[in-house]
Write the structure tokens for this entry.
Amino acid sequence: MLRELSSMRETFGKLLVSLGEIHRDLVVITADVGDSTRASYFRDRFPARFFNVGISEQHMVNFAAGLAAAGMRPLVTCFAMFLMRAWEQIRNTTARMNLNVKFVATHAGLSDSIDGSSHQALEDIALMRVIPNMKVVVPADSSEIMRSLPKIISEERGPVYYRIGRDYSPPITVDINDEFRLGRATVLRDGEDVTIIGAGPVLWNALEASKELSRIGIRAAVIDMASIKPIDEDTIERYARKTGAIVTVEEHSIHGGLGSAIAEVVVKRYPVPMKILGTTTFGRTAKSQEELIEHFGLGKNSIIKAVAEVMGSGRRSRGS
Amino acid sequence: MGNGKSIEDLELLAIRIRKHILRMYLNDQSLHLGSSLSSVEILTTVVFKYLRRTGDPINRDWLILSKGHAAPALYAALAEAGLIPFEELERIHSINSILQGHPEISIPGVDMSTGSLGQGLSFGVGVATAIKIHGGSGRVYVIMGDGEQDEGEVWEAMTHAAARKLDNLVVVVDNNGFQLDGFIDDIKPKHYLPHVWRAVGWRVHICDGHSIASIDRSISDAINSKAPTIIFAKTVRGKGVVEIENTKSQKPGVEVVKRALINA
């Protein structure tokens, strides 16, 4: 089924139930969005381990911190945007005490297309990435949720910000069989002329761009950087050396997100010209996430245009 | 700790703890003196009469200093409990001291890193809930300030605690009548708060926050009650340093504090 379009939250909700069967100490906390996040499936299966704290995001975060401190394995889930309301609680309690709380932030990026700018978190990667002890993961699609979330819940101690969308999930990593590892990138398509790095559903557009570029003889590598923190510095350097130019694409502000994280590595390890594609202002309402991706310049044609620009911008000769 | 000392023993301990705070102030005048001094009897009673520190996380008690700026009072109590060396107290705020400006869990005896107001109760509700899930015997004590009651998260937490009927949760408010910028009644009156907490479903006590016997009676009732309990402990900001008692200014001169130390 994951070979077709699938729903990120449906995948998450169903997976959460199976994780609940494995981990008897797993508790799920939400702020009155149990149905919207699909944490409702966990609620129906394990009512005693599900906590709806009401519309109280700040309390939700510190309540989960207390559960973790007393030895439970809490997973907090709500809309990415409204979790940001509790940034200071996440920073000052969860992260400062390095507590084992997992945050699954749904409806991130442009995925909540109908609700509009009030609901579209385009700053959350930046806000989470700067917090010490916090790790940040942005799975590309439902398949990557299936590969990464069980590992993160089972093996990773300490806080993780796990960012997913709502329903739109084109099949991006369905053929990837590598085990998910924090700090390791996945090369979706190899290439020698330019590198496109992305995270989340926009990797679909990156792959489409790469296929079209190959028709005119440009071999564009496409890399899935689901683990934004820690980030795979070696793969970034290897592809900077190999291709001499990088385009990044994300459903997030161009300030402080994936593109910024990669630029921080590139300037340190092997500077090459870059183009960072992302949003520059608040989102807006549209009838679909795909429309918004096009509207904000993250679609196939925008990526191709960025590739042309970065390749023509006096890029560094390769492999030197 | 928590070994049922007599009221007289506790009163002597409170005097020692107050003296530690004054000596710490002599070493560093940047500490929050007034709100540390107002908390002394509350902390003394909780730590030395009630707190059971041994056992696993669900069968021991937890102490959360939500008003983290009273850290010097907590550190002094923890030193008297044998968890922090006395000589460390005088090094508070030094770059190589374990004693940070606000509590950190890296400090022995500290259960929650605090300092940002309004967060301790939510954490306490989480711990108390985990204890309930496991059928543990632990209790959670949260010490809050009255100024702190302004924070919206306090409303979120107190309503949730009442909904969950957490009878293993005790809140003591150090009701010293001041917040950072001044007298509470001038900034945002809070005289209605006991009514609010009661309406939400909490058992509410009001006691004399400098009388160990009075605090003791309230906590004793709280731990036998079937509802979460909040104790509004009426206190005096700067208690023990007459010159600053019930005033906004909490930066007395060194000579004033030395005199208070002798009279304590």
About this structure: The radius of gyration of chain A is 19 Å.
